[in-house]
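User: These chains co-purify. Model them together.
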Amino acid sequence: MSTANDLIHLPAADLAERLASGDVSSVEATQAHLDRIEAVDGDVHAYLHVAADAALERAAEVDRLRAEGDAGLGPLAGVPVAIKDVLCTLDMPSTAGSRILEGWVPPYDATVVRKLREAHLIPLGKTNMDEFAMGSSTEHSAYGPTRNPWDLDRIPGGSGGGSAAAVAAFEAPFALGSDTGGSIRQPAAVTGSVGVKPTYGGVSRYGAIALASSLDQVGPVSRTVLDSALLHDVIGGHDPRDSTSIPDTWPSMADAARAGRREGALDGMRIGVVKQLNGEGFQAGVTQRFTEALTMLEGAGAEIVEVDAPHFEYAIAAYYLILPAEASSNLAKFDSVRFGLRVNPAGGGTVEQVMAATREAGFGPEVKRRIILGTYALSAGYYDAYYGSAQKVRTLIQRDFDAAFGRVDVLVTPSAPTTAFRLGEKLDDPMAMYLNDLTTIPANLAGVPGIGLPIGLAPEDGLPVGIQFMAPARADARLYTVGAALEGILEDRWGGPLLSQAPELAVATAGGTN
Amino acid sequence: MAKPELMDFDKALELYEPVLGFEVHVELNTATKMFSDAPNFFGGEPNTNITPVDLGLPGSLPVVNEQAVRYSISLGLALGCSIAESSRFARKNYFYPDLAKNYQISQYDEPIAYRGSVDVELEDGRSFTIPIERAHMEEDAGKLTHVGGSTGRIQGAEYSLVDYNRAGVPLVEIVTDIIYGAEKDAPELAKAYVSTIRDIVIALGISDARMERGNLRCDANISLSPRGSGILGTRTETKNVNSLRSVERAIRYEIQRQAAILSAGGTITQETRHWHEDTGRTSAGRPKSDADDYRYFPEPDLLPVQPSAELIEELRAALPEAPALRRRRLKGEWGFTDLEFRDVVNSGLLNELAETVAAGAAPQAARKWWTGEIARLANAAGVDSSSLVTPQQVAELIELVEAGTLTDRLARQVLEGVIAGEGSPAEVVEKRGLAVVSDDTALLAAIDEALAAQPDVLAKIRDGKVQAAGAVIGAVMKAMRGQADAARVRELVLERAQ
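Assistant: Joint model of the two components:
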C-alpha cells in the first residue's frame, strides 16, 4: 500500500503504471489529491473550482472499467488532472478568471477537455489565472491571486499561475494551460515545473476562451518532461472545429521524451543561443544557472552555437499591438445579451447602456487597458502604423527563426528574466510586468513550439530558474527529447527532482493522512 | 410628417444626372450555415437552429462552409468576375445585439470574386452593361423584434427580442461599381439589374431568391450630379426594398426627392433611407459616413480561402446558360413575338413561365395566365406574382382548361381559390364544385327551357341567322352559372335547329 503522500508526489507516468498494475485505485489517487487540495489550497489558491464529487465518481468508474478488464482504457486512465479556467467544461464553471463570466457553465466541452475525458483522465477542477489570460502573475484574477508554493509571498507567474502552482504544490500531477505569450512557460519557470507551448495549430483551440486567436495555444504543465509529453499526446492532433488546426499526424511526444533519457541523446544536437536573449542583463542567478546548463548540454555532446535574431528586440512592442487588437475584438462578445454578467444601470437603459455598465463592472483594469489599446491600434488612420507595422515585425521575427533553424536544431534561452517576484511588486507597473515575457513571446509570434523546465535555484534568493528550448514548427517532439535529456542530467546532479527541494507547505487540516 | 417635396421626374433629369450603385445580398441555400453546422433554416421557433458558434459563445470557433465557397465561386463566375487565388475573411467590428460576436465575419479587402460585369436588358430591348466591383462572402445577423412600441421599430419600444436562427446564414454581397449613364432609365435599370441577379442565382440553384422573404436584398445607392458640373453628389443608400417593383419605385422616388432638395439650394445628407412600400416613400435611417470605423482586420480564426484552379474550372464548366442567351433561346422555342416576349421579361416572369412550360403547359397559355390574370391579382395585392402561385399550379390549371374541365371564367375562380390557399387547382374544382357541366342531358334541358322562352330564335337560325343563337347561349350559360362550355352549348343549340 502507498501512503497518500506517496501518491501525490508521483509523476503522472508512474501513477499511471501503478493504476494499470492495480497497485493503486483511481479513487485512492483522486482522493489523495483532493485531500492535498483541501490541506494546502487555502494558502496557495491554485483552484477556482474543485469538482470533488464528480472526480471521485469518474475515478470509481475507471476503477470499475479496469476491474472488468476494459482494453479501451488509455495509458493515463484514472490519473487526475487540473484544467485552466480558460477552457470550457460542461460540468464546471468556466470564468477565465473574470467577474463577467462568474458562474457561467458552458453548454459544451473544449476539444482538449473532451479528449481528456475520452482518455479517462479525472478532472479535479479549474485553476486560477489572470483575467482572460492577461498577466504574468495571476494577480489580475478577479478571484484573488494564486501564491507560489516556493514562497507564498511571491507570484506563481501568469497567466497560468494556478495550473503551475497546483502542479508544484502537488495538488495535481499535471494540468492544462494556455500560452499566448508565455502563460505556460513563465509560470513553469518561477514554480520549478515543466510547461510546453505546442506548435500553433498542434492542439485544438476549440473551447479555449480566446485572448489573441493568432497567438493562443493550449499545452501541458507538469513536474516532469515525460508527463507533459504524455498529456500532449492526449490533447494534440487535428480538430475539424478549429480551422487553424494542423491536419498532420504527429509522432508520439512520450516516445520522444523517453528517447531523451537514452545515452547519447544529445550527440551532435546543434543548440543555438539567441544573442539577443542570452541572459545578459537578466537577474544574476538566472544568468548563472543558464550558463551552467549550457555547459552541461555541451558536456552531453551538444554543440552550442550563437545565433543572431536581430528582430527579437521588437517582439514585445509588436506583441503588445497584435494581442490587444485581437483581444479587443474577441472580448466584444461579453455584452450581457446571451450569457454571463448583466448589469442594468439604475433606472434601466438602452442596450448600449446595459452593455457599457456590464463591461464596466465585469472587466478588470488590465482587461480594459488592453481593450482600449487594441481598439486604438485597429482604428482607421492608425491601423497601418500600429497593427500593420506589428504584423510586419512578426514576419521579420518569423524570418529570424527560419534563418536560425537553418543553422541549429533548437534554440535556447532562459525561460524568464527573473525568478518569482513578490506579490504587488509590479502590479502598478504594466511595462515591468510585460517585460517578464521577453523570452517567451517570440515563439508565439512565430507559431513555433517551446518547452520550459527547471535548471536549479538562483543562489541569491533560492527560487527556481527555468530554461526554454524552441524548435521549428511541427518539431515539438525534438523539444521533449532535448528537455528530457537535460532533465536527466540535472536530476542526477540534484539526486531527484528540483521540486523535492521546495519547502513544505503548512497543512490546514488533518485530511490526506491515511 | 409633412409630405416631402418631389420634383417632376423629367424635370429632375433635365437638371441632374442620376448616379447609381447597388449592393445586392444573396442568401445562399446551403444545408448548413456559413461558419457552423447549424441548419441553414430561418423561421420556426426562435433560437432553435443555433450552435455555440452562432451564439458567439466563449471558446467557439468558425469553420468555413465549403459548399458556400463553391456557390460563391459559381456566382462570381456567372458575374464574369475573376476568382481570387487567395481571399480572406476579416472582422467587421461593431456592437449590435443581433450580432452575436459583436463583429461580423465578412470579406473586406480580399474578396473571393472581383471585377466583372453583367448585361441587363431594358423593356425596349436595349442592353446595358453593369460593372461589378466585387462579390464577397459574409454571414447574416440575427433578427430583432422590438416589443412595446406602436411602429414595431426600435423607437418607442420597451424591449427587444433576438432570434439568432438567421445568425450565420451564408450571404454573398454583390457590389457594383459606380454606374453612370442610366439617365431616365435609372429606375427601370435598377429593376432590370436586380431581376437579372435573381435570374442568375436561380439558374445556379444557389438561393431561393425570394425577395419578399429577404433571400435577395437590394441596397440602392443613388446620388445626383448637377448637369455639366462633373461633380458627384452626396449619395443615399435605400434599404428595405423587398420587391422588383419597389426597386424601381424607390429609385424614382429618391431622384425626385433629392432633385427637389438640391434645386431648392439644400444639401443631401449621407444616410441610409428606409423604403416604405405602403406610402411609396423613403424615410431617414441612420447617418452613414465614409468614416464609419469598423476596425476591420484579418479574421485570425480562419485560414485564407484558396480554391484550386481545378475547382474553379470545374465550376466554370458547370455554369448554366447565361440569362441573356437563355432568353434568346426560349423566345425561339416558344415562338413569341418580340412584344409578347418582352412583356414576359419585363414582368419578371420568365422563370415562372419557363417552369410552367416545363410542367407541361402550352407557352401561349402560360404567358396569357402569368401576364394576365395572375399579374392583375399580384398588382392589386402589391406583391410579386411568384409569391401567389407556383408554376406547377398554373400548369395544372391550364391543363384543366385544355381538357375542357374548366372554362376560362371558371379557371379564374379556381385561381382565386388556389391563391386563397384552398389547395391545388383540382382540389379547388372539387371543393367549390366548379367543373364545367359536360352532361349533355343537363345542357339540353337548359337549352330547351331557353328556347321555350325565346320561341323565335329557332326560326331565325333556320333562316340562316346563326348569330341569333347567341341569345340562347347566353341564357344557358347564365342558367348553368357559367359552368358550361359555351362552344358545346352552341353546337347543341344548332343541332336543335336542324
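Chain A has a mean pLDDT of 95.
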